[in-house]
Specification:
The structure is a single chain. This protein is mainly α and 77 residues long. The chain has one domain: lambda repressor-like DNA-binding domains (434 Repressor (Amino-terminal Domain)). Helices cover 66% and strands 0% of the residues. It has five helices and no strands. It starts with a helix and ends in a 6-residue tail after the last helix. GO terms for molecular function: DNA binding. InterPro entries: Cro/C1-type_HTH, Lambda_DNA-bd_dom_sf. It holds the Pfam family HTH_3.
């Protein structure tokens, strides 16, 4: 079960992911092609609905041309 604090952290991660994607001017579909992840999954990550896996973080980082730890550098509450 996901706690309220966990949900908040997932939402913050998703907001950061979206910010990075938009800064690279990538649509959901383009990013999905670059990282071999379904575009609907990217939407779910950005909305904080899914607890993302390490392998997916690595794929997203590669598509965004950032180091994986950059994806985890979001402001916490």
């Amino acid at each position: 079960m996901v706690s309220e604090t966990d949900r908040e952290q997932l939402a913050l991660f998703g907001k950061h992911l979206k910010s990075l994607r938009l800064s690279k001017k990538l649509s959901f579909r383009k990013m999905a092609l670059l990282c071999n992840v379904d575009y609907a999954d990217i939407q779910r990550y950005e909305s904080g609905m899914v607890n993302i896996t390490l392998l997916t973080v690595l794929q997203l980082a590669k598509a965004l041309e950032v180091e994986p730890d950059e994806l985890l550098r979001f402001k916490k509450n």
